[in-house]
Design a protein that fits this description.
Strand order of the largest sheet: 1-3-2-4-5
Shape: globular
Distance between the termini: 19 Å
Number of helices: 6
Order of helices and strands: EHEHEHEHEHH
């Protein structure tokens, strides 16, 4: 059972991958995260959780870590300087090309480790596209499930901590404290949205939004002011452990037969 970095291997070494080897692709983003966080926040998160989980899972199954995708679907932040984004069509084509290339070799299992909520719907579509076009077993894991997609959000954020809030800021204080400026951190929770019963983050009716829609003026949707590196370490450790457990299942997942004991 092994952990490898795909780009460190030779062609003949890659040819020796087995059918149960899982290729893990970190998927982040380069986009504004308010005045207190770097634009590469999601990229750092994806890389950290993917590598930690791949190393941990590699103790009991074969995992190879692909180079991450940094430029992805971030048009909800296109209004801000620093956001570098691809259209949905372009990103879907890129992901399809990567899957096609992998399928030309022995890899048959591809897991996306996503750290940007704006990618989730597109990657969900890509799972079936890659399955039907290239025969890959495909999986979507999250570094941290966003609040607008069923993930937890601290009470102080009223279920609306979706961007640049407590979790992401804490994680970056742990990963790259040199890039965090807490003197610029401000609470930016659109509390007026609680007046809507059906429409909202995590509610029965979702809505299209950009990060400058909420009247906060910062691009943040959440409350970073209580962030700490200790909380960040705890959150990242939990994310890595959960993703590693999921990768172990990805390596043995077969929908056509009962799970062996």
């Amino acid at each position: 059972m092994t952990f490898t970095r795909f780009i460190d291997l030779s062609g003949p070494e890659i040819e020796r991958f087995g059918a149960d080897t899982v290729a893990v692709l970190p998927v982040g983003a380069i986009e504004q995260h308010g005045p207190h966080l770097p634009v590469a926040t999601d990229h750092y998160m994806a890389e950290a959780v993917a590598e930690g989980a791949a190393r941990l899972a590699g103790e009991s199954c074969d995992i190879t870590l692909l180079p991450g995708l940094a430029y992805t679907k971030s048009d909800e932040h296109a209004w801000s300087a620093g956001t570098l984004w691809l259209t949905a069509r372009t990103l879907l084509s890129v992901v399809d090309d990567i899957g096609r290339s992998l399928a030309a070799g022995p890899v048959r299992r591809l897991a996306f480790l996503n750290a940007h909520g704006g990618n989730s719907a597109l990657l969900g579509v890509a799972l079936r596209e890659l399955r039907t076009r290239h025969g890959l077993r495909t999986f979507l894991l999250h570094a941290s499930l966003p609040a607008d997609q069923g993930g937890a959000s601290p009470a102080t954020e009223l279920g609306m901590g979706v961007h640049g809030g407590l979790k992401e800021t804490s994680a970056m204080l742990h990963l790259r404290p040199d890039l965090v400026d807490m003197s610029q951190a401000r609470r930016a929770v659109p509390e007026h949205l609680t007046a809507y019963e059906h429409i909202g983050f995590g509610k029965s009716v979702s809505f299209g939004w950009t990060s400058d829609d909420f009247g906060t003026g910062t691009g943040v949707v959440g409350d970073p002011t209580g962030a700490t590196p200790e909380l960040g370490r705890k959150l990242l450790d939990a994310s890595i452990a959960a993703a590693a457990a999921a990768l172990r299942e990805c390596a043995r997942f077969r929908p056509d037969r009962p799970v062996s004991s």
